[in-house]
Design goal:
By secondary structure, the protein is mainly alpha-helical. The chain is about 60% helix and about 5% strand.
Length: about 70
């Protein structure tokens, strides 16, 4: 595996890590969907690369949820 840059068409893998994480932590899928555009814009704008974008997105959603409830 290698590092890749974020693509504007990126989506979390259907029924993959993100879906499993959301279900196991009782996070509404709609909340995660609302984070998607900002997540992609941030990584595209900053030109950052990653190996596992689903894992990065999970971390992003966790931080967003923490901010939303605190």
């Amino acid at each position: 595996l290698s590092l890749t840059q974020m693509d504007k068409n990126w989506q979390p893998c259907p029924n993959g890590e993100v879906s499993k994480f959301l279900v196991s932590h009782d996070i509404p899928a709609q909340f995660a969907k609302e984070q998607l555009l900002e997540f992609k814009e941030y990584y595209i704008t900053n030109g950052k690369s990653a190996m596992f974008w689903d894992a990065r997105f999970i971390n992003w959603v966790q931080r967003a949820l923490y901010k939303a409830v605190n």
